Amino acid sequence: MGLEEDIKTLLDSRLSLTRIQGQQVILTVGEKMTSGSRGKLLLDTEKQLRKALGQPLEVLLEPRGDLNKLRQQLRGVELDGSREDIFTERYNASDSEVNGGTEPNG
Fold it and tell me: Which helix (H) or strand (E) holds 17?
């Protein structure tokens, strides 16, 4: 058996092997867990793999992209001036659009 198969047989059922890069074992977690639980699981897995395989392996979690839909849509958007100037111009309390399109009666 190769290294990849050896690692797969030793992994916890909640983990899956993504790839191996040199001494780095890249994994994904198949269920939602707290960061503390996830960290402990990865450390325990690294210790188990090192002991069983006799190699100085490093276990890493596959990086996930930003899942926030709003930030994905706004990525790369450029403003047409400084943030403060735009905010003052567009959201000034005396702006007629903010006040429902009518000027206050005096």
Answer: strand 15-21
